[in-house]
Design brief:
This protein has 247 residues and is α/β, with parallel strands linked by helices. The protein folds into two domains: 162 residues, P-loop containing nucleotide triphosphate hydrolases (Rossmann fold, 3-Layer(aba) Sandwich), CATH 3.40.50; 67 residues. 40% of the residues lie in helices and 23% in strands. It is built from nine helices and ten strands. Strands 6-7-8-3-9-10 form a six-stranded mixed beta sheet, sandwiched between helices. A four-stranded antiparallel beta sheet has the order 2-1-4-5. A hairpin with a 2-residue loop joins strand 4 and strand 5. Helix 3 packs across helix 4, helix 3 runs parallel beside helix 5 and helix 4 runs antiparallel to helix 5. The protein is globular and about 50 Å long. The protein binds adenosine-5'-triphosphate and magnesium ion. Adenosine-5'-triphosphate binds next to helix 1.
Amino acid sequence: MSVLEVKGLSKKYPKKDVFAADNVSFDVGEGEIYALIGPNGAGKTTTIRMLATLISPTAGDAFMDSFALTKNPDEFRKRITYLPDEAGAYKTLTGIGYLEFMGSLFAKDRAELEEFVRRGEAISGLGEKLRDKIGGYSRGMIRKLLIARAVMTNPKLAIMDEATSGLDVINALEIRKMIKELSVNNKTSFLLSSHNMLEIEYLADRVGLITAGKITAQGTIPELKARFKSDNLEEVFVKAVSENEVL
Ligand SMILES: Nc1ncnc2c1ncn2[C@@H]1O[C@H](COP(=O)(O)OP(=O)(O)OP(=O)(O)O)[C@@H](O)[C@H]1O
Ligand SMILES: [Mg+2]
């Protein structure tokens, strides 16, 4: 069963001639990790920001539990969490203070809030550093905190735009492992975007390749490798993108 269904989602920004997202359709199943890949400016963030209810679609719609993004953005928003591609966090709060504040927006009572924060603490892997002010965190530490925040409330769907960008190899690996575990053990669904093909090969159950606003190829990684006669996803990416430039 699909957790998220995206149907013909399109976005034309004011004063632009072309659609940044053009009739984008895909679905994400329960516990599935779906990855959007594509060149810079292809429309990944635009698609993600529409689904995060931050910008409104020009056309098309998306559905979660039969709630439509366009008609019921509040119901839609309750079911997702969103990690932006570039994000800071309130520098004057401590890590734990931030988790408590963000948790309080989702928790129905004190007990649930405590459970969220406990989960967030464990997932962040930041240990005692959570007692420090965020102003003194490194980029990687902030990223870990934001990722912990995005999954601690048990969303049906966690949307993460370039989750591990800027992280060192060890931190990126830890975060990938955590995403995989949550999808397998917790049945959390993920919509990810990434430029790291190694990361996508490790994580993604299915991939949608966006070129110039359109999904031009979609499938499991073995399916895509077979279709583009490639041994790895980087080769798939290059072939799929160049194929679309010719057309
Ligand atoms: N706020 C905006 N106003 C106008 N045009 C925008 C805006 N945001 C994005 N665009 C344009 O929409 C297109 C898609 O951009 P988008 O950020 O969705 O790409 P992306 O796939 O996320 O790229 P990247 O890999 O660089 O993150 C680009 O042509 C971009 O210039
Ligand atoms: Mg982007």
